[in-house]
Amino acid sequence: MAVSVADGGSTSTQGRVAARSSIPDEAMEIGGRVWYPHDLAFGRSVADFQWRLKAVSLEGLTVGMLEYGMPVKITTGELEDAYQVNFPLFGRIRFSQGNRVVVGSAATAAIHGPVQATSIQGWSEPTQMLGLKIPAALMHQELEALLGRSPRQPLEFEGSFDLTSHRGKEWRSAVDLLVASLRSPDSLLSTPLVARAAVQYAVRGLLLSAPNNFSEELAGAVETVGSASVRRAVDFMEANAHLPLTLESVAADACVSPRALQQGFRAHLDSTPMEHLRGIRLRKVRSELLSGTASTRINEVAARWGFPHAGRFAIRYAKTFGEHPSQTLKRITGN
User: Cα(195)–Cα(58) distance, rounded to whole angstroms?
Assistant: First the structure.
């Protein structure tokens, strides 16, 4: 959908928005749809107003860059259904929510929760702000997956996040993957499966890295998983290997948390759940090839068992069974 803006224009395609304007009302209207409804205050003449926004939506998460050409103050009500993470790539911005105030910079991010009004004040110097709007439902879904249970209290962040810490630097790398999609429509993140993984990486990384009321539990020891739970998980994967299984779905069936299941597999099988699942699927492919005919198409069999990339599949197959899939089929069919 295209949105007309008087002096620069705005385009919106498949969740991607690029806009600029010299009219405050237009900036508030477009920015309100991408981020949140807000009020905008500035001290200079309206003739000096300049605004620019770029944003993209990935699996429900919005990542965007925001610039103003003069000092402004942005105020919103409660965010209600989302968490917001903001920090300048250059320059400094004052963020507040309730009584909390964070002076954001390239070294410090501000994290706002769904409750309490917020304000953003800055752009007295050239500043480019990067923001992530994370739906509360997505945040809670990933928190539940990490905890292995439903949270019994609302998630609350402390408000600021040190991006120069070891974890902060790692999380910035996750955000850089999302920013790559913002800067280029041809990014790998245009593929839904890749986008989903990148978004999960960023959200889970935030939960594990930014101080919050679940940090102690998330960093704590994982419950011990016995061989019976690992066997249950293996049996579940054997019976459902044809389905798009995830670590979370396997862990749920085994009645353990994803982190605990990973540690259980390392302890009992010296592997990970997803590595073990790939091994099961490879054996399923081999079984079909061993009972194949001259009309059997290797790529179709491989794709059916979750190996869509022929080259990578062939390498895995040869490494596992000591021969290429075509050799297996030729040996059986004689062709």
Answer: 6
Return the domain boundaries, the chain.
Answer: 2-209, 227-271, 280-333
Q: What is the pTM of this model?
A: 0.68
Ramachandran bin of 116, using left for φ above 0, alpha for ψ from -120 to 50, beta for the remaining angles: left
Other residues' Cβ atoms within 10 Å of the Cβ of residue 315:
12
CATH class of the structural domain 2-209? mainly beta
Please calculate the CA angle 190-194-196 and round it to the nearest 5 degrees.
100
Q: CATH: 1.10.10.60, 3.40.50.1000, 1.10.940.10, 2.160.10.10. Which one for 280-333?
A: 1.10.10.60
Q: Which two tokens stand for residue 219?
A: 């960093």
Do 113 and 155 contact (CB within 8 A), yes or no? yes
| pLDDT tens digits, one per residue of 54-104 | 999 999 999 999 999 999 999 999 999 999 999 999 999 999 999 999 999
Predicted local confidence at residue 8, as pLDDT? 44
- Show Cβ contacts of residue 333 under 8 Å, excluding neighbours closer than 6 positions: 292, 293, 294, 296
Secondary structure element (H or E) that encloses residue 129, with its range: strand 128-135
